[in-house]
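Note to self: keep these together.
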Amino acid sequence: FTGHKRGGPDVDPLYTFRGHTGAVLSCVCTKGNPESVLFSGGADATVRSWKIPHTAEYNLFDPYDEMMIECQVLEGHSDAVWGLTLHPESVTEVASCGSDGTLCVWDISREAPLVARVPVAGPASAIQYIKTSPDLIAVGLNNSQVQLVSVSSAGVVRTLDSGMTEEGGVTALDTHPTQPLVIAGYTDREIRVFNTEDGTMVHHMIVHTDAISSLSIDPMTGSNLLTASHSLSIRTWNIEDWTCDHEETAHQRRHDEGILCVRFHPFLNFIATSGADSTVRVYG
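Structure:
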């Protein structure tokens, strides 16, 4: 986390996407092959896909032109959409989960984009494709379960039980790039690591002093895990021996919330965080 500047200059937005009628709760973005697409999920129960214009075609000070920014509305949920995840091998497929207790799989290249709609065991707030088996999706529920859903059979194939004895749920999920592992973060300050092939919990430990808000596995090597918490700390963990290699304090607490999201860059040596203080920070 070295080399970053505190209190750097403000950055003006290049694009403003308008369409949701409620709060935007989740976002994911494709890498751009041939063009980038942003998916957003909202409290209005919709998922929307936005084609990001090329920078050369867009002037920061031009008036807003809704024709410039194409939006496709994906309707299938009946309540807020809290989680989105991109297919690891397809730039047009995305999966979503929400408060209505359903998981939806979408493919925006199809005339009818809803591929599957699968009921799960309760409201869900975290979702990730299994990178070693892209037909499977892990979804984290508010009742502390993680369920594995098969896209091809459109059903739940396995439930991963956390063994939590207190009330709480899953707040964050990520999957290992080369091993059949799901790592889940919980409101009880613990992470739990599951083997997706047999459903066993292979490791668990307390990693923060407050609820875990986000986590991310290094997509290039799979050897490091980032965790973030409402206690305002970011920690880096070595996955081989589960030691903490580094800790950084970031953001400011607002309305009992701290750090909301942390992510590794997909192929560069950067991480980014966002917080309840309405700031985004990039570390290199």
